[in-house]
Write a structure and sequence with these properties.
The complex is a heterodimer.
Chain A (H helix, E strand, L loop, with lengths): L1 H5 L5 H10 L7 H13 L1 H22 L11 H13 L1
Helix pairs in contact in A: 2-3, 2-4, 3-4
Chain B lengths: L7 H20 L2 H17 L10 H22 L10 H5 L27 H12 L3 H12 L4 H8 L3 H24 L5
Helix pairs in contact in B: 1-2, 1-3, 2-3, 5-8, 6-8
The chains are: A mainly alpha, B mainly alpha.
């Protein structure tokens, strides 16, 4: 109870900001504690936190994936032109 | 195990499509992506003497392309310096109750594990159309951070903004991308 007094429950608005900033900078101790407490008690925010970190993981994997089926390609003409440029430069 | 650099005649066939696909994910513009790939090969040719045999040549090409992309953005934002304040604040505020700051609506649980989505072309076109709704600088910040894993310090330099502004716009981008995908993909019954 004493802890709760020292660490008032932050709002979802505040938790949203902190869960995002956690992905970009180190949070301070007080920030980590109040975010952790909020997420433990708020199902909505903890879902959102999972989804935005999951989305980051997915995007980073996507960038590194060369697709077997949908890989965009340069046209043969574009390739020939680049080859030509490489030869003449 | 080291190998010399392959013959420049072979570069385009070996790596052209791979580099083009990568560039396209970051710049979303086919002719710009093409130019960046071409510039990458030309720069590689010029500096091929400095190729270190310790690294794989594929990694080397991707490193050059990454530089080209950052250079392109740096040039673009040299013309548009300063923090981004475009109107995404209201859109984010709308998720929270004005007085209490609590979420107005419970987010829906996403049914699909994200890793199943990698090869799903329709998902990526939904995601890129969500990205199109973001202001330009916010969009580029989001791509550099969440796709490219760029360091925040470097993103600030490239975009010509402060760290505090970057945190703010990345927060807004994440909130808006999440809810846009919820609406246009996850709730639309796709899986």
């Amino acid at each position: 109870m004493k802890m709760m007094k020292m660490m008032p429950m932050i709002s979802c608005r505040e938790a949203s900001r902190l869960m995002s900033e956690k992905m970009d900078r180190g949070l301070g101790l007080a920030e980590r504690l109040s975010l952790g407490l909020h997420l433990a008690m708020c199902r909505g925010c903890s879902l959102i936190a999972q989804q935005i970190t999951g989305l980051r993981k997915l995007l980073r994997k996507y960038l590194k994936t060369v697709s077997k089926r949908n890989q965009p390609q340069l046209t043969p003409e574009q390739k020939d032109r680049i080859k030509q440029k490489l030869k003449t430069s | 195990m080291t190998e010399p650099l392959s013959n420049p005649d072979k570069w385009v066939d070996l790596y052209g499509d791979m580099l083009y696909g990568y560039a396209l994910k970051l710049v979303s513009n086919t002719s710009l992506a093409h130019d960046l790939v071409q510039d990458t090969f030309l720069a590689a040719l010029k500096s091929r003497k400095s190729f270190k045999k310790q690294s794989h040549e594929k990694t080397w090409f991707f490193g050059i392309l990454k530089h080209k992309i950052l250079d392109h953005l740096r040039d673009k934002y040299r013309q548009m310096p300063g923090n981004e304040n475009a109107g995404t604040e209201e859109a984010v505020e709308a998720f929270f109750d004005n007085a209490s700051g609590m979420l107005k609506k419970m987010p829906s649980a996403w049914q699909v594990h994200p890793s199943e989505l990698i090869e799903k072309e329709e998902f990526w076109s939904a995601l890129y159309s969500c990205l199109d709704h973001l202001p330009e600088k916010t969009r580029d910040a989001f791509k550099l951070r969440e796709l490219e894993e760029e360091k925040t310090e470097d993103i600030c330099k490239v975009l010509n903004i402060t760290a505090t502004n970057l945190w703010v716009i990345l927060h807004r981008a994440r909130v808006l991308m999440r809810s846009c995908l919820e609406k246009t993909w996850f709730k639309a019954g796709n899986s």
